[in-house]
Amino acid sequence: MTNEPKRTDVVIVGAGFTGLSAAIELKKAGIGFALLEARDRVGGRVEAVRNSLGERIDSGGQFLCEDMPEVMALARARGKAFVETYVEGDFIAYPSMSAKDAKRTYHGAMAIRERMNGIEPDDPSIAGMTVAAWLEGQHDSTDAKTAFRSMIEGLWCLAMDKVPLWHLIDNDRRITNEVPELQYSLRETMQSLAEDLSGGLGDRVRVNEPVTRIEHGPQGVRIATGNGVIEAQQVLVALPPATAAKLDFTPLLPPRLGEALGVWESGAVIKILVRYARPFWRERDLSGMVMWRDLPGLFACDASRDAEQAALVVFVGGPLALRWHDLGEAELRAAVIARLEAAFGPDAGDVIDFSSRDWAYDRWSGGAYSDLIVDVTVRDAERTILAGAPPVHFASSELSPSFPGYVEGAIVAGRIAAQKIIDEFQSAIATRASGS
Hints:
Layout: E1 7-13, H1 17-28, E2 33-36, E3 48-50, E4 56-58, H2 69-77, E5 82-84, E6 90-94, H3 99-117, H4 131-136, H5 142-156, H6 165-173, E7 184-186, H7 190-199, E8 205-206, E9 211-217, E10 220-225, E11 228-237, H8 241-244, E12 249-250, H9 255-262, E13 264-266, E14 269-276, H10 280-283, E15 286-292, E16 298-302, E17 310-317, H11 319-325, H12 329-344, E18 351-358, E19 371-373, H13 381-387, E20 392-394, H14 407-435
Parallel strand pairs: 1-2, 1-11, 2-8, 6-15, 9-12, 11-20
Antiparallel strand pairs: 3-4, 5-7, 9-10, 10-11, 13-19, 14-17, 14-18, 15-16, 16-17
Helix pairs in contact: 1-14, 3-5, 9-13
């Protein structure tokens, strides 16, 4: 391992896209830093693995779309090949219903979501209300409500009765894409983009280096890891809030900040890629997209790279993921394939590879795409965390003004946090210069 500096300007904790993006900005500004990552790789909730066919596949965050300008620009600048998600043909709503009814159910669920987002987050009539409680009072069809629940628990990976309605509205309003968020994936995997960003940072990126303690005070910070101590002027904790809350801060963070970090919870998701010899669903004019109404949080869509690499990706989110987390590998495979066969017929059983990644209870980043606030009373948690307790700063996709919970949001959050730190350094330099 490269000799670690005993002192640098900034320590960044976490080499997901938030930490990587912040590090790139600090490098441009000429500010010294060390980027510490607990895992043996960069990327955080983005990850790639080899399946049994030798193919490198996305086992974590994968999809992007044209309405996500920052991640699209990064991928284009690094010459990534975009794979357009196949969406032609009918989608399946299971238990089975006609294509007309399935379309009506889908649009009914989207109408509920639009109605929800039409409410002001600070509307006193929804104070203390969860998403589940609000939905119960809506006069939509049972099928539309069930599809809405499956959509919400699949996307946010927590039970609706845990999520404050105001928080979901505020969160969802920042996800502003007009084209489908599943529009593209990268042929080289999203993980390859994280690796490209890391490659430009050299030996200032240190993997396998979990932070055990952050000591902070007026004179700066001391970051303790298994490999020693690094002193710096400032630290940026680029971790999801629920993960950041588990760090050992000495002295303790101000009570209001500690409370703000403590009201977040990670959901749960299991991601599965099922490979086939051919995209049999396309032969029947199906898109490959399935939403299961009897198992909220279960969703599938086409993830083929081309006709020769046919695949369905299956997402298991929320309470269902927690239940299936306890299944063994063989049981999980049997449960998923049985569901696919029920939706598509026997062709869905002709599997040539089954790769699963269970993110529930993940040690370093929680169990889903993002954390959510689960306390209906703590309305200023995001503002409090973003204010931090200098020299301790926080950033994560969850706190982004755009696309929270996505790679796009992580990039934006990292850049904003870095600019704040850069401004503070420049201000300190100017103050010293004027004093001399």
